[in-house]
Amino acid sequence: xLLFHGLEGSLASxxxxxxxHVAASLGWxxxxxxxxxxxxxxxxxxxxxxxxxxxxxxxLIGQLAHRYPRALKVAAGVSLGGNMLLKLVAEQGDNxxxxxxxxxxxxxxxxxxxxxxxxxxFSRVYERHLLGSLKRKMLPRLASxxxxxxxxxxxxxxxxxxxxxxxxVTAPLHxxxxxxxxxxxxxxGPLLDQVELPMLILHADxxxxxxxxxxxxxxxxxxxxxxxxxxxxxxxxxxxWHQGRPAxxxxxxxxxxxxxxxSTMSAIHFALDAKKCKKNAGY
Length: 283
Hints:
Strand content: 5-15%
Structural class: alpha/beta
Oligomer: single chain
Distance between the termini: 37 Å
Radius of gyration: 20 Å
Strand order of the largest sheet: 2-1-3-4-5-6
Shape: globular
Number of strands: 8
Order of helices and strands: EHEHEHEHHHHHEEEEH
Largest sheet: 6 strands, parallel
Helix content: 40-55%
Number of helices: 9
């Protein structure tokens, strides 16, 4: 089970630890891909990562396919990682990836609308937190002159929204013609009707990162996609009351989906192996 974290997330993120633990408890090899600059090692190249950057994930899935050709493989993406994963799956089609299924959690599938939502009301608390993390990571690289950007450290410090940051940093650093061009080309939502792989999408109506009724703005998902909308859950929250204490509904739902896929795919593999044995035996 391969996990892709959210904006400025890492192995230290609580949701990442919970999801990796629940997968491992079911017998999966559970691993997380750090986006560039989010792990223990610094990013050495004059670039970063963004919501539509599928190349590293595609490479990693290919490496796992080569190393573990017979292993059942699924992927899960959280927030930014969920948008990236849906985009990757839609672009590659049913046979382009060695994945049996994908789980997309609290993904900002319309980046422009989500950037606007984050700059309003209480959502600005989350925006300031994310923006501060991005600035702290980018400032020393900008001051050292290693990035091909025209913005000064002082101007970077003065940015007040994620949209401003994407306009000044994300877009020019990755070859986009401004923030709106980046949002348009990196948003996975318009590709929803092109997903052929079995996919579970989990979303909360009260997610402070998202515009209201997000999925009404998107194409109708195909039969391969199951969208589950919760009235409450926040952004990657989904807490439930269980045996007298709060617990992660998200971890329980992901565990259920992994177990379902594990059971289904094991039955398919058993049937294929039995058919192969009969053929070899001359039946």
